[in-house]
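agent> fetching stored inputs for the zinc ion docking request
agent> found them:
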Amino acid sequence: MRDVPSEVIRIQEVGMRDGLQSAGQFVETADKIQLLNQLSKTGLSKIEVTSFVSPKAVPLLADAEAVLDAIERVPGVIYSALIPNIRGLERALAVDLDEVNVVMSVSNAHNMANLRMTCDDSLDQFREICTNRGSLSVNGTLATAFGCPFVGSVDPSMVLEWAKRYLDVGIDSLTLADTVGTATPHQIFGLCKAIVDELPEIEITLHLHNTRGLGIANALAGIDAGIRHLDASIGGIGGCPYAPGATGNVCTEDLVHALIFDGYRCDVHLDALFEIALQLEGILCNPLPGLVRQAGTKLTTHPMSDDLRCRLGIP
Ligand code: COA
Ligand code: ZN
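agent> prediction call returned; pasting tokens
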């Protein structure tokens, strides 16, 4: 039997960035604001609100400033935005934000495809970002940490190496991202344990995609390895527009359901998440990948039909 940690597992919502950046349609700014305001009140510890990237690269998030100007802040929630470069920092410094999430891929091929620069060039930008961040925290994401859509396997020692380089340039916290959902639970456990053991002072988040159905198994493997922060997206939406085959993140409500019913502490209101996922489904006019909302929770029961009762002789 696996040990359940006494600490709260922090759930961090990325659907409004990772999900909506590739939703296939522009979600109106007012809808984004309403969804974010509701998400803020569910017990999630961090919300990645949007990204400050080139609007030509990601037109679906071109309204980043308008969204950040309008959302209500709930005390205790960390509001974050993804940035790829100095221009992104300049935009982030002009709004009310707690954190910027700098991102680069461990795989040079994916970094070129996604950000049009080498990993070394990304790191140079991040050094400058850390120097000029003002009061912003800087989280550093290592994308394709468990596999790359272009070159396949990624050497775990390279991930550790890049994590150390991130620390050297001054990031405050680290995210390991399975960008295209290729990781398996033993792989997650091995790499997370190695990095937790080697860099015990840094807070590490696991960012998982459920592309091959292993999202929640991988999240539990990460917790076993000492991870206490998990990214997830409402309804299970998501996918990197510059990673072929990438689909949704691990679904927030499915993850929260798994944690609650398996005895973990996560302090997120499941029913409120169901409500928000339902609204999002209406906005996107498409069924969302999340499973528990459709199946009902572990406690859901169904009344027996009169016909069946009659056939079984049950009054
Ligand atoms: N915000 C807004 N505009 C930006 C920007 C930013 N952070 N960074 C660059 N731009 C603009 C430039 O001003 C320039 O505008 P112009 O054509 O009107 O002069 C244009 O984008 C191109 O700038 P350049 O520096 O040459 O960038 P590039 O074409 O080499 O692209 C990135 C590099 C990083 C800006 C771009 O690839 C990008 O935004 N990628 C993000 C991808 C993403 O979000 N992926 C999913 C999340 S991991
Ligand atoms: Zn992602």
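agent> quick read of the result: The chain has one domain: 10-312.
agent> awaiting further instructions
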